[in-house]
Amino acid sequence: MNMRLDVVTIFPEYLEPLRHALLGKAIERNILSVGVHNLRDWAPGVHQAVDDSPYGGGPGMVMKPQVWGPALDDIAAAGMDGLGGQSLDSAVPHLDNVRHDQKLGLAEESSYAGAVGAVDESDKPLLIVPTPAGEPFTQQMAQEFSHEGHIVFACGRYEGIDQRVVDDAANRYRVREVSIGDYVLIGGEVAVLVIAEAVVRLIPGVLGNRKSHEEDSFSDGLLEGPSYTKPRIWRGLEVPEVLLSGNHALVDRWRRDQALKRTAERRPDLLETVNLTDRDREALEH
Ligand code: ADE
């Protein structure tokens, strides 16, 4: 299993955390390769403007299609091989800020998958555009995305990206506009970190213990209940007796009850999609 992530942003340093911790480990083990690209490398002119005022008026700026179009073309063309850029595959950042025109040679040498003839839809890379106007990101989407070979993230800033970029990209990508929650961030970068972490941890071999994500909150539709470790008594607070009983059936039942109660309290909306047994209903009534 191998996954490639490419991120296009005007703030490449924002994506630094991708090389740390779990994702860094996946990179070292060659399960994952990551390329971070500066959108300005595709911006013509001395000022390298990437945005302009919106048609129809209104506040803010919109990111220019003439900059985004070629960036997404080049990255799609380079495919899984990756397009120079700032690779995050080593612990030491190599800040080779080669300009995009110098890097083109690299793209042309690489296998130009999908350039000729009919393209099978499933061969197209997945383009994720983080936006508060997107479909809500869920654990189920993370699960789906974890089977992808090549995911490209397009980070918009300001008031977003000219919609024609997204519409046109559908020729070369399967496109999803995704929101990580009902709040507005300054740009898509942090959303990319969130989505990448949720996705990469589900790739087999990334988490040591396979079970650990099968039992996550959400995988059974419920929030996870409380957890405890040693010591048994801390600051006068005791670990619930049942967890020390050694009776696995009793422990499982207690954990399920705790998950049900917590979900009812914090996310009653989730309960509507869970198949509740009579025993579950009883637990919820007490
Ligand atoms: N960009 C700005 N806000 C966002 C959100 N909530 N989700 C994804 N991308 C965003």
Give a description of the structure:
The protein is of the alpha/beta class. It folds into two domains: about 180 residues, Alpha/beta knot, CATH 3.40.1280.10; about 70 residues, Trp Operon Repressor, Chain A (Orthogonal Bundle). It has ten helices and ten strands. It has a six-stranded mixed β-sheet, with helices on both faces. α1 links the parallel β1 and β2. α2 runs parallel beside α3 and α2 runs parallel beside α5. About 10% of the residues have low confidence. It binds adenine (ADE). Adenine binds next to β6. It catalyses: guanosine(37) in tRNA + S-adenosyl-L-methionine = N(1)-methylguanosine(37) in tRNA + S-adenosyl-L-homocysteine + H(+).
